[in-house]
Amino acid sequence: MMLTWEVGKGGRLLLFIGGGGSWKSRPRKKYRGGMAMAGNPRSQNGTLRRKYRARLKAMNAECGICKGRLGPIHYDEKSIPANPLSFVVDEIRPISRYKEFGYESKRAAAEDWNNVQAAHYICNQEKGAKINYAGGGRTVNVQDGKW
Fold this sequence. Notes:
By secondary structure, the protein is of the alpha+beta class. It folds into two domains: 3-36, no CATH class; 46-127, no CATH class. Helices cover 18% and strands 19% of the residues. Strands 1-2-3 form a three-stranded antiparallel sheet, with no helix packed on it. It has a two-stranded antiparallel sheet with strand order 4-5. The radius of gyration is 21 Å and the shape is elongated. It starts with a strand and ends in a 20-residue tail after the last helix.
C-alpha cells in the first residue's frame, strides 16, 4: 500500500491511499518534533503524572473530596467503576476551566502539584468539574469490599 499526503485548501491534510485514486481528507494535526501532540493534557506529560500518582499513594492520604466519610482509599485496586473506593488523582480546580484560575494552558493546570489531591473514584465522578464540592449530591451506597 502506498501512502502520500499534501496540505490542501483550508489547511486540511489530504491523504492519498494506495493506487485506487481515492482522496481522503482529515483535519491537520499539530506536530512537535515529528510526533502528533496528545489531546488530553493529563497524558501530555505522563512521567510527571505518574510521579504525582506515586507521591499521593505514598502519602496514603484520605479522599480530598469526602474527607474519608466513605472510608479509606483502596490504593491497590484498579480505577474502574466496579471499584468505587479505588484511587484516582483529582484536580481541585478543573482543568477545563483553567483560564478562571490564571493558568496559561490546560496542561499547566494539570501539572500543578498544588492542584491535585487523592480521591475515591466515586467521589471524583460525582464531583465532575465543580469547585469547592463537599459531596452529598446523591446517596452513595458503598459497602467496603462487597460490591
